[in-house]
Design brief:
Shape: globular
Low-confidence stretches: none
Number of strands: 9
Helix content: 10-25%
Order of helices and strands: EEHHEEEEHEEEH
Strand content: 25-35%
Length: about 210
């Protein structure tokens, strides 16, 4: 009912949250022996790879749909040294950091910026059907180095408005260039801003509605 599958191996436990998955298929393409596609019944096999390999698969999952717990005393996932938000081409904002999203703790999350998701603030893949267009290569802005690049990153969806982000974060393009650095930002989540990825107030004219 929760949409969460929990599968224990001998040395590692995998949790898969289908509601967060944006179907990037990185897990299946990287290790089809661990995440076996197109089968009936059991499809997650933690013991098909080392615990370290399984952990790395989870770290590469942008949405946080895959998480893990080491059962062998190995290290748990930790926050990165640099808080990032990656601009996915024609898709969501992929955050990686010590996240607090409307009170929920996470290290990885893909948040809707097209306005069409049924699971706001999370992306549910609706951008594809909506024909959402937003470059992953936003113009570079002049910004100085941050005094601190990690630490808590609070993300609060404003009612009928943008994602309000508080904490050190660096905006990165799809090709890895740093667009901007800030400690306070408002990211568009209505899909209408003329200054993507940032909010420019277009949600008011567009009549955007989201709790």
């Amino acid at each position: 009912m929760s949409g969460i599958e929990i599968v224990d191996g001998r040395k590692i436990r995998i949790r898969f949250d289908a509601k967060k998955c944006i179907h990037s298929r990185g897990c299946v393409l990287s290790r089809p022996d661990v995440f076996v596609p197109n089968v009936q019944g059991e499809w997650i096999h933690p013991d098909a790879a080392t615990p370290e390999a399984v952990a790395e698969l989870a770290h590469q999952c942008p949405s946080g749909a895959i998480t893990y717990e080491r059962l062998d005393g190995g290290p748990a996932e930790t926050a990165p040294k640099v808080n990032l938000v990656r601009l996915r081409e024609n898709g969501p904002l992929a955050f990686h950091g010590e996240l607090r999203i409307a009170g929920e703790a996470a290290f990885r999350a893909t948040l809707c910026r097209c306005g069409a998701s049924k699971r706001k603030p999370y992306c549910d893949g609706s951008h594809a059907a909506a024909g959402f267009v937003a470059s992953g290569e936003a113009p570079l802005k002049g910004s100085g180095l941050l005094a601190r690049r990690d630490g808590p990153l609070a993300i609060r969806p404003a009612a009928n408005g943008p994602l309000l982000v508080s904490g050190a974060v660096e905006v990165v393009t799809g090709t890895g260039k740093t667009v901007n650095r800030s400690t306070e930002a408002a990211f568009c989540r209505c899909g209408q801003s003329g200054n993507k990825p940032y909010c420019d107030g277009s949600h008011v004219k567009a009549g955007f509605r989201a709790a």
